[in-house]
Amino acid sequence: MRWVTVDGRSSLGNPAAQSGAGPLRRAPLALLPLLLLIGCTSTSTTSTPDDKPTPAPNPASPGGRWQPRPGVAWQWQLNGKLDTSVDVPVYDIDGFDQPESTVAALHAAHRRVICYISTGAYEDWRPDAAKFPKSVIGKGNGWDGESWLDIRQLDVLEPLMAARFDMCEAKGFDAVEPDNMDGYLNDTGFPLSSADQLAYNRLIAELAHDRGMSVGLKNDMDQIPQLIDDFDFAVNEQCAQYKECDTLTPFIDAGKAVFHVEYELSASEFCAESRKLKLSSLEKKYELGAWRKSC
């Protein structure tokens, strides 16, 4: 998710009202104006011919982990009844909400599956919420039921995150999308430094790798040069709106996918640049339901 930072690149809004079975976690209200006007031809709400799985779209890394390649198509759905009919090679879904059987069904359809887990924020509706001591829970991050975590307290957070990653592994996920990985740029209630963030993000990557799963760097674009070797892909929100997609090219140059979404720009405004940069780009609504437009 995107946040206000000291250089003004990102925006933060208040969460929307709850929707469906749980809190709606991706619906800020205060947003910057549209900034880009770039041509695009694809406006599919499900999939396009380019989205269709190829015989080997997701090779393994030398260490045996799945390594998504630049340009691979994907679907990102964190809310609502999961639509498994989108014909793409990669799905990114909520690790707590989705059962092992869903992951197995997606695998049977020759799809790789990413486990969405918040690693930098406390979520009061999760089944393990009571295990987080008050000492690590900071200021609200602007989303319903969420608060920043004190990522300096590695002795407390490491076993909690390890248990979450154990869950992802047990359900058969191929990879992890750890969210809220840039607390040091925000008003968390803790004096977090860039060094604190680097140490924590590397811990998160290690936890995933130790379980044979690949892991994505979520946003945290300022630290890409230091973290490119630790992460297997990137997940980015709104780089086109903030004119910073070029910052993600180290991942592309390393043969690693960049899974990218825009909320405030239409697909016709960013797809041309996305294709040029080999990003795996979608237009999505903030609630991250099934609806999508692909490049």
From TrEMBL:
Pfam families: Glyco_hydro_114
Domain Glycoside-hydrolase family GH114 TIM-barrel: residue ranges: 74-290
Descriptive protein name: Endo alpha-1,4 polygalactosaminidase
Record PANTHER family: ALPHA-1,4 POLYGALACTOSAMINIDASE, PUTATIVE (AFU_ORTHOLOGUE AFUA_3G07890)-RELATED, ALPHA-GALACTOSIDASE
UniProt superkingdom: Bacteria
Disordered: region residues: 1-22, 43-70
Organism: Streptomyces roseirectus
Classification via InterPro entries: Aldolase_TIM (IPR013785), GH (IPR017853), GH114_TIM-barrel (IPR004352)
